[in-house]
Amino acid sequence: AWLLPAGFPASCDPQVGPYMFWRSVQYAFGGAISVLTTRSLLTSLGVAKAYAGETSAAINWVIKDGAGRMGRALFARIGGRSLDDKAKQWRLLGDGLMFAGAVGELSTSMLPQLFLPIACAANVAKNMAVVAASATRAPIYRTFALQNNLADITAKGESIANLSDVVGTAFGILLTRSKRVSTFPAFALLSAGYLISSRLEVATVQLPYFNKARLGLAIDEYLRSGTVPSIKEINAREPMLPWNPKYLRTTR
């Protein structure tokens, strides 16, 4: 009960349950993935240290983190107001960037001589994903709040996510200690679970206001049948990729 908002379920929209479930599943997969990618980074850095020395290895790690911070600033500039209008699309894009960053970090163990450029690119992608997740969190959580309890829902949602991340991290540690588990097949399976749960998480969100795509779909349906689709119907039909031809057709 301590992970549920006060007054649940009356204080929250019903969609909060499925959303939090898939969000927790996604974070569990993400926690396990982070163990594999961190091991790859440290392995690659250890090899680089053997060739270039401890000071050079430490500088590479600091530069990697600095590049990630630049990625955050860049993404905030790119997203702008569209982070509100296309919250679900940006959320999915952010998860895709997180996956791309994880792939980059994992590849450093195979190319330790290219640790710095690969790790920097991977960290830029992951930090852009963090901004996408944090920026789109408010529009989504605001939809769940029925009793002026946005802060409570946000706190409980993040607590659930962090707890799931810890569980996933523990599972990832068990995987890395097992001699029967190969890193790359395990990473592929975990990544598939991460991306699928991310898509299912976003699919549970029913935003009750129009953006260009949802407005276009509503107008098309009204002109065709004389009826206005429900919030659930129009959210289910909204394309999740901004470059989807259907999305472009409804936003001209």
Description:
The structure is a single chain. The protein is mostly helical and 252 residues long. It contains 10 helices and no strands. α1 (16-52) runs antiparallel to α2 and α1 runs parallel beside α4 (87-107). The chain starts with 15 loop residues before the first helix and ends with a helix. Residues 247-252 have low confidence and may be disordered.
Shape: globular
Number of strands: 0
Please indicate the percent range of residues in DSSP E strands (runs of 2 or more): under 5%
Number of helices: 10
Q: Rg, please?
A: 21 Å
Helix content: over 70%
Question: What structural class is derived from the secondary structure elements?
Answer: mainly alpha
Order of helices and strands: HHHHHHHHHH
Q: What are the SSEs and their pairings?
A:
Layout lengths: L15 H37 L1 H26 L2 H4 L1 H21 L7 H30 L5 H28 L5 H21 L8 H14 L5 H7 L7 H6 L2
Helix pairs in contact: 1-2, 1-4, 1-5, 1-6, 1-7, 2-5, 4-5, 4-7
